[in-house]
Amino acid sequence: MTEITPVLTANIEPGREPLDRDGYEQAGGYAAVRKALGEMSPDQLLELVKESNLRGRGGAGFPTGMKWGFVPQGPDSPTPKYLIANGDEMEPGTFKDRMLIHGDPHQLIEGIILSAYAVRAPVGYIFLRPEYQRGADLLRHAIAEAEAAGYIGKNILGSGFDFELHTHVSAGRYICGEETALMNALEGRRPNPRSRPPYPAISGLFGKPTIVQNIETLSCVPHIVNNGAKWFRRLGLGEDAGTKLYCVSGKVRRPGVYELPIGVTLRELVFEHCGGMRDGLEFKAAIPGGAATMLMSPEELDTRLDFTSLDKAKNRLGTAGVIVIDDRTCIVGISLNLQSFFARESCGWCTPCREGISWIVDVLRDLEEGRGEPGDAELLLREMKMIGPNAFCALAMGAEGPMVSALEKYPEEFETHISSGGCPYEHPPALPPNGSGEQGRNLTPRAAW
Amino acid sequence: MPKVTIDNKTYDVAEGRNLLEAILDNKLELPYFCWHPELGSVGSCRLCAVKQYRDEDDKQGRLVTSCMMPATDGARISIADPEAAEFRRSVIEWLMINHPHDCPVCDEGGECHLQDMTVMTGHAHRRYRGRKRTFTNQNLGPFIHHEMNRCIQCYRCVRFYREYAGGEDLGVFASKNHVYFGRFEEGALELPFAGNLVEVCPTGVFTDKTLHRHFTRKWDLQSAPSICTHCGLGCNTLPASRYGTLRRVTSRYNSEVNGYWLCDRGRFGYEYVNGNDRLLAPASRTDDGAPDDWETSTAAIAGILSEARANGTLAAVGSPRASLESNFVLREIVGAERFNPGLADEERRIVTRFLEFLESTSVRCASLRDANSVDVALVLGADVTSEAPLLDLAMTQACRNAGCRLTLTSLRRGRLSKFAADDLHLDPDQAARFGAAIVATLRGTPEPPEALRDSLPPGTHDRVRDTAAALSAARRPLVIAGTSARHRGVLEAAIQVAQALVSTSGGSKEPLVSLALPEPNTLGVTMLDAGEGPSLENLLSAIESGKVSTLIVCENDLFRRSGNPERLANALAKLETLIVLDQLETSTVEGADWTLPVAAAAESSGTFVSSEGRAQRYFQVKAAAGEARTSWRVLRDLLVDSQQEGSEAALEWTATHHVTAALAAAHSSLRQVVEIAPPGDFRLLQQRIPRLSIRSSGRNAMPDMTDVRQHVQPPEDTDTPFAFSMEGYQGRGPTSLLPRYWSPGWNSSEAVNRFQIEVGGPLHGGDPGLRLIEPGDIRTGSDGAGLQTVSVAAVPTGKLEAVLMLCGISEVFGSEETSRRAPAVAESMPPAYMLLNPDTAVSLGVVEDGRYDLRFGIDEEMRELSLTVRIDETLPIHVAGLPAGYPETAWWQAPCWATVEITGQVEQREPEKEQP
Amino acid sequence: MLTPEERVELDEMRSHYPTVRAASVSVLKWLQKHRGYLSDESMRDAADYLGLPVAELDGLATFYNLLFRQPVGERVICLCDSISCWMCGSDRIRRHIENRLAIRMGETSADGRFTLVPVVCLGNCDHAPSMIVGDELFHDLTPEKVDQILGLEDTGSHGGDHD
Ligand SMILES: Cc1cc2nc3c(=O)[nH]c(=O)nc-3n(C[C@H](O)[C@H](O)[C@H](O)COP(=O)(O)O)c2cc1C
Ligand code: SF4
Ligand code: FES
């Protein structure tokens, strides 16, 4: 079993209040800010992050340093620039940002300050989903503490860098996590995504250069500054860098958040760290990176869960929200649930997503309720392949992944739904006991956040 | 010029186009919904997908949304690619999931862009088995019908309404496939351009409620190109009729004038033509019960005319809402010195001065297209929104897209105020002084003369300075004035500002002016008259003194022109014979000895000169109501029968173009009007152009609802090259003769893209109409150093708080003469009122919505009237606003000082708001 | 109409946003928190206060799932119906709540105490099924636990689950 020293979760202890500034500083916190603002130019910091091979943890896995490099700089470049921490986290199966926000707010803030410095953004926003209100309170308190210590404000630590940081608590809707929709939401407009180009790094919030970064991505930055790019790169088991917060849910014995070197295999994650399947259940499938990624079959258990390996497997690491599905759970039912999610969370802007996905839902419901007709599986496959890549934003592509992979990898499930006139499974699936009591390195606290 | 390869053929494309535009510019077929040339690309419908290839070797390609991709040089795309075609078909299939398929009962059917695109993509078989989502519709007022289930979520409506036109009360609600377009709550749409939703919406969500009441499919509508008569801008229209009534008006594209749009007054004001108060047969007061017919009336009137002429007691009043042709023939009957053009005297002075100015300056009279892109604008004493509605829409574009800096001076806050850098609420006198102060500043007189300054509210001086500075720095400044304030000083100031901009810029600027005119031919009739005719005042005196005893009035209600109805009524009563030609009952018609029914614009052909100075021809759409005849024909018969000297030539006038030619020959300023459209005997391949579409279901028996045999002959038509049938030339004629936009596969109004040189640009063959007055090369012009300000007559004596300046408030719906007789417009009109500042209301002891008996004292005269009080905190405290163009308040001539007394209260309604 | 006290609080909130429009959602949320839901009147108050067209604000209010344009019960139950919770039995919890309160998803109980709405993944999938009641998160739900949380069992204690 792969062992690591926790990095992002070092200060997080289940059930305990997060460290305040003093505690965080005693644990080595804000050293990175001191170091970077004291010794490094923004460009050097940017180079360091580029070198670290940090890739975005919000779903797309875009190289963070490269994105920062797109921000126009220089005396004639537009000002101000903005840095947005994306804490919308609504991707089903994903619960890592919740932990970072509630478990170590100062780490996030430090990461934000550093990233803002690198792109020379004087203003930052932390965008939070409404259910993370307590997180917002914790963050506001931590921001005030950071301000009091001079880590936020004018001329931070004498570096000449000014930075202010605000929180915004949203009012729902998954689409708000899409970075351009998020900017519309922040501006008080309907959160429909914007067309690209222009890319946010060129023209984003209020028409100014804007960097949107996932909470986990930002939380990595202080550690890169403290320990160096090479250290960070070496943390990974495969080609990718860093540790990764894997969120495991579903029918495993010990669901939870696990900080592991990026690149553990699905098998190791499920059967070692999570203690395997719950009693009497067999592994049937897993979705590796939140609702918007493709189903993995038992044959794929040895695939490494990192960007590179999953890209090769025509899959995506996404948010690393691993949803484990057992043999008593219906793949059509899973698909219906997922597609209902995407249909409901569609912003309603473009035709394929708005109309197409709800058609998919309709057909899936027919299958589940015994109204399926021969040809439905083909119809689902064809329509979904047309909807996914041709919608306005990536939401529909997210819907395509699990649907197409379900049809391709579990065709017999769809066939039996048609031939046997409905769902052969027990609904809702019976729930064997959770294997609680065992002590794993499950990092999820149980406090009611 | 970029070259784009489309399905292996290479095409030239204009700079800066996107792929969809490039495709449409080259008249290739590609379906689309959400893109619109004026509203831009948003990429939401995804229908316009094509395959794009990286280079020649790329055989795979990828689907792209063509409206979102620039048409760069060397781009390679395929429309025909099977995957692209299938995707487009799927987009329609997806949209059809929730579309109700209610085409048979949908008013859009037959001119539905969704139908066209469905056919174009080939989607024909539905596979969806589920239920459709349904919405509740809203009552959106008298103009627009709402049917949300048909929505395909292209967002065009809100993009037009909010982003383009600046409306606020139409929104998009909810998300996913519940997205809903409507109002926060039921109620009439506030935007005076809401009618464009009917054309902007690609399906039947927003349809024309007035059409609905007498519905006809587009393919059965009979139409011809026409010009809107409800203000002076000359927007191009397509009125359409069936079975003898007008059914609707849609916009006729003209890139120089109205573009794709119309205002709601122009679109929905047409129903007066069908009204119950139409005059249908000639009538004489001395009616002995025997019906009058044209022959006997003409003979009788001709006799009266020749006698009166012999006595020297004949005079005539023309009209700014009658054609050049009618005015010309009328003028021929009585002679130039006895022809009054039919404007109120002050208005005539204003328009005459404006024309003089235009002829002697390098300042250009702005077209609507010009106004779209100015960088600084100054509006002096006009309410653009109600006086020239589409100019408001153009200014909205200037402010939103061209960053126009706008200074407004009008009586109160209006629709454009939210865009204005300076929004001043001034009476017309003050507006004129404000303009004069700007002139002084522009000319470098650092401190404007005391006299100018003192009468302006405190703080105005800064606004003067800022506006003048902006104007000086502008590249294309525009100065707008109006006539409905009836104040010469306002126009004078506007002219001087424009002139000062020319003379101080050394020719580096292209200043523009615009004068909002309330009627379609104000400029035309003024050019015809050329200031030669008597004033109304003189005419009245002449009647009073018996020098004039026979008067012909053509299409004019004199009570709208005169400030003294009793005097006018007495004078008219004194006439031996009053002959009135008109369409509708009016106060003038009431007193007529002879009433001659004449055709409305949609029932006749002729020429108008718009406020831009653009001469435009309109053509008969339908047969005239009852026995009504085109007024120039009635007048020609009178001219010939009364054997006026030199009337022999008129014997030859059997078609409109004969008269047009005669007037062009007689008036050098109008000599070009013959060129604006082909004459009535114009034929293509010896054929007429059908007024009915090739898709018409009526075939042979169009005018008859009950019988398939044709036993009603279509009216004889020498005036136009159009046929009252579907037979005739099926190709494309000149743009001035386009009776509809239709192209195979394009049955909706989107078909216009097949007629444009490039989509959104001018029409193939040029936009119709011709500007008669182009700026000269006069770079300096007179400096008019001693600017005169003209002020409103002295303040009358009386209780001070009750002395108020009466000013006319223009209403989009209600102030214009004919549209207010259309039921839908009438429903939208506010009832007659007196508008006051809240402070003034307090000092008068009146409350909002209360109805009061009022006594107005002007000079020595007293008027009594009951009006409802309305409150507007932006109105100056010394002003009482009365609605312009309302018969109830037609007795006064704005602006003037008056004592205002409350003599009683008619009915006390609970005031809705607490009074301060 | 907003009271002067309400205005003071809203002014404070507005000052955190660079534009008035950007403050819209927060203003709406604030009004909802204090008035239970966003009535037409509250919408007009917000529009008045922000100087934005009410149609535009309603475009926001109706977009977000946690802004309520209809009256809701004293406690709003947001039951997660996303994949992990569904797999672990959220559907059974839904039916249980529906039966106990005699309402369907989206409805308010007759006594006005509860409204049940679905919500997307609460980021609590390792303790599925989960729900939020009011501001509190509850997890590892069973029918018995739900009764307890909602105070529906005869002797039941109230409040959240803080184990
Ligand atoms: C529908 C949709 C929802 C998304 N939601 C989130 C989210 O909740 N949190 C997040 O960090 N990224 C989300 N993303 C990805 C963001 O658009 C963006 O790529 C990300 O915040 C960039 O940060 P990163 O580079 O650090 O991953 C979402 C994307 C889509 C298409
Ligand atoms: S794919 Fe289209 S409808 Fe769906 S969320 Fe993105 S923009 Fe909105
Ligand atoms: S027209 Fe191109 S996406 Fe709608």
Overview of the molecule:
The complex is a heterotrimer of chains A (449), B (916) and C (163). Chain A is α/β, with parallel strands linked by helices and 449 residues long. In chain A, strands 3-2-1-4 form a four-stranded parallel β-sheet, with helices on both faces. Chain A has a four-stranded mixed β-sheet with strand order 6-5-8-7, covered by helices on one side. In chain A, β2, α7 and β3 form a beta-alpha-beta unit. The relative contact order of chain A is 0.13. Chain C has two domains: 60 residues, Arc Repressor Mutant, subunit A (Orthogonal Bundle); 76 residues, 3-Layer(aba) Sandwich (Glutaredoxin). In chain C, α2 runs antiparallel to α3. The termini of chain C are far apart. At the B-C interface, β7 of B face α4 of C.
Topology diagram in text:
The complex is a heterotrimer of chains A (449), B (916) and C (163).
Chain A: H1 21-26, H2 31-39, H3 42-52, H4 64-69, E1 82-87, H5 96-103, H6 105-119, E2 123-128, H7 133-148, E3 164-169, H8 179-186, E4 210-214, H9 215-227, H10 229-235, E5 243-250, E6 256-261, H11 266-273, E7 283-287, H12 307-312, E8 321-326, H13 331-345, H14 351-368, H15 376-390, H16 395-409, H17 411-419
Parallel strand pairs in A: 1-2, 1-4, 2-3, 5-8
Antiparallel strand pairs in A: 5-6, 7-8
Chain B: E1 3-6, E2 9-12, H1 19-25, E3 49-53, E4 62-65, E5 76-78, H2 82-98, H3 113-121, E6 144-146, H4 156-164, E7 171-173, E8 180-182, H5 196-200, E9 206-208, H6 209-212, E10 222-223, E11 226-227, E12 236-242, E13 245-251, H7 264-268, E14 283-284, H8 294-311, E15 314-317, H9 324-334, E16 339-340, H10 345-359, E17 364-365, H11 368-371, E18 376-380, H12 384-387, H13 389-401, E19 405-410, E20 422-425, H14 428-442, H15 450-454, H16 460-473, E21 477-482, H17 488-505, E22 512-516, H18 522-529, H19 536-544, E23 550-554, H20 565-574, E24 577-582, H21 587-590, E25 594-597, E26 606-609, E27 614-618, H22 631-641, H23 648-651, H24 656-666, E28 689-690, E29 722-723, E30 770-771, E31 803-809, H25 823-828, E32 833-836, H26 838-844, E33 851-858, E34 861-871, E35 879-883, E36 896-907
Helix pairs in contact in B: 2-3, 8-22, 9-18, 9-22, 9-24, 10-17, 10-18, 14-16, 14-17, 19-20
Chain C: H1 4-14, H2 24-35, H3 40-50, H4 54-61, E1 75-80, H5 83-87, H6 90-101, E2 114-119, E3 131-133, E4 136-138, H7 143-150
Helix pairs in contact in C: 2-3
Bound molecules: flavin mononucleotide, iron/sulfur cluster (SF4) and FE2/S2 (inorganic) cluster.
